Amino acid sequence: MEARIDKWLWAARIFKTRSIAADAIKNGRVTIGGMNVKPSRMVKEGEVVSVRKPPVTYSFKILKTIEQRVGAKLLPDIYENVTTPDQYELLEMNRISGFVNRQRGTGRPTKKDRRALDDFVGPSLEGYGDFDWDLDDDEE
What we know:
This protein has helices at residues 5-11, 18-26, 75-78, 85-97, 111-121, 136-139, and strands at 3-4, 30-32, 35-36, 42-43, 48-53, 56-62, 79-81. By secondary structure, the protein is an alpha+beta fold. The strands form two sheets. The protein has a five-stranded antiparallel sheet. Strands 1-4 form a two-stranded antiparallel sheet.
């Protein structure tokens, strides 16, 4: 049995909508065997699909070709995640650094960005504010 790649990516819950899946394929973020494909490309069981969602490239081995969306509990029967561990390390490093992909000229950091920066820098200043400024307690 075969299925269209855009329908399979949507049905396997890799993309939220089929149009997002089709756009990703058109923009070259989905490959099969290292080759760019079209949304109408038919996929077969056993093929490995690579999906680039920056900064990570996920790889999925197709176990079952479907075109109807299934529940999340059934996903282990549909595909096997064969993404290499170094890709997950990239994701973790990007999450920790936080500001690697901040583009130049995007303006001031938002409150959320500022809090993330404070959490990132915070441990080096541990114990800095522990001084007791209340001098009345020392006089008694």
